[in-house]
């Protein structure tokens, strides 16, 4: 039998903050804005980190989230929109949202690029009903 401690409870709440759901937002009228932001994000990444150009060329696809905003004061949340890029085309549009609870105060914004290095990884992502990232809790 495992005894629940404040530490384990806090870690569980922090792990909740690592959970994000992605949904296809293809019907959105924001596609041209997202496309422009994706192009800009990739250009900045390639200029800042030249090795990522070869990584992108070898990848089967990339999920590019140009701007994810997180904010919290005890309870927190995050949201961003982006596109799945295969070759030189954006083939699907996604939104990512997350929630968290625990000791937190502040806000941040960042870009995120996830490289799918195999066709199987890309196909698995596209076939899944959602995307989850998290942490293990004891």
Task: Explain how this protein is built.
The longest helix is centred in the N-terminal third of the chain and has 18 residues, at 31-48. Mean pLDDT is 80; it is low at 1-27 and 133-138. The two termini are 13 Å apart. This protein has four helices and three strands, in the order αβααββα. By secondary structure, the chain is an alpha+beta fold. It has one domain (20-127). A hairpin with a 2-residue loop joins β2 and β3 (89-116). It has helices at residues 6-17, 31-48, 51-58, 119-127; strands at residues 20-24, 61-86, 89-116. 34% of the residues lie in helices and 43% in strands. It has a three-stranded antiparallel β-sheet with strand order 1-3-2.
Would you kindly provide a brief summary of this structure?
The chain contains 4 helices and 3 strands. The chain is an alpha+beta fold. A hairpin with a 2-residue loop joins strand 2 and strand 3.
Q: Approximately what portion of the residues adopt beta-strand conformation? A: 35-45%
Count of strand segments = 3
Measured distance between first and last alpha carbons: 13 Å
Specify the number of helices.
4
Question: What is the alpha-carbon Rg in Å?
Answer: 17 Å
Strand order of the largest sheet: 1-3-2
Percentage of residues assigned to helices? 25-40%
As for the number of domains, it is 1
The average pLDDT value, as a whole number, equals 80
Order of helices and strands: HEHHEEH
Instruction: Tell me, briefly, the overall form.
Output: globular
């Amino acid at each position: 039998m495992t005894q629940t401690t404040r530490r384990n409870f806090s870690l569980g709440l922090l792990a909740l903050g690592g959970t994000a759901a992605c949904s296809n937002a293809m019907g959105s009228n924001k596609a041209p804005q997202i496309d422009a932001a994706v192009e800009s994000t990739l250009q900045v990444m390639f200029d800042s980190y030249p090795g990522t150009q070869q990584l992108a060329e070898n990848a089967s696809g990339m999920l590019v989230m140009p701007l994810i905003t997180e904010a919290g004061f005890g309870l927190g949340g995050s949201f961003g929109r982006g596109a799945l890029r295969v070759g030189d085309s954006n083939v699907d549009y996604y939104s990512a949202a997350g929630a968290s609870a625990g000791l937190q105060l502040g806000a941040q914004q960042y870009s995120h690029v996830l490289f799918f290095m195999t066709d199987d990884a890309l196909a698995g992502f596209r076939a899944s009903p959602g995307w989850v990232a998290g942490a293990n809790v004891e």
